[in-house]
Amino acid sequence: MKKSLRKQVLQELKSLSKEEKQRMNDWLTEQFFQHPFYKEAKTIATYLSFPHEFQTAELIKQAQKDGKEIVIPKTYPKGQMDFVVYEPEKLERNSFGLLEPQGEAIVFEPSQIDLIHVPGLAFNPSGYRVGYGGGYYDRYLEHFTGHTISTLYLCQIQDFQPEHYDIPVEEVLIYERDF
Q: Which annotated residues bind ATP (predicted)?
């Protein structure tokens, strides 16, 4: 079920026009910056996005201007993940095609992170998500006590039953406006 859902949503995301994506990204980024979770956070974990996803580059740039510490995921075998300081000069493509920190990096403990901006392909109305299938975020979020938020396009809202190990995102911002 998750495999076909991933394929369907991925196809929908890739079919969005560049202009449509830019409009949605701008609106979602603005909503993110207005959210109390963002305003209160000192350290924010986010991801470096694939081209079909919500684009995080502007979010990262503005958050840094706002004095926020930005940390990004570094993955390891067996579904393990840490968040490390965002240092653009130390990024290389991993086996998934994503930019990821290479070499030594400062690891942040979950208690040092105020807000995690969680990626995903599909989300149900209760905030449960279907990611890319590695389980990295579910494992990490299991022990995380800070806030979580995701930024979504309407096509990412899907009806599915979560698995027992799935961890819901606390707040989901959804682009629903039609200009």
A: 2-6, 129-137
For residue 117, the cross-strand partners are 149
Domain total in the chain? 1
Q: Is 139 annotated as a binding residue?
A: no
Residue 19 annotated as part of some ligand binding site: no
Q: Domain of 43: which CATH number?
A: 3.40.50.10420
84 in a known ligand binding site: no
- Here the tokens at position 74 are 């570094």
Q: Is 130 annotated as a binding residue?
A: yes
131 is in an annotated binding site: yes
- 48 labelled ligand-binding: yes
pTM for the whole structure: 0.93
Characterise 106 by phi-psi region: left (phi > 0), alpha (psi -120 to 50), beta (else): beta
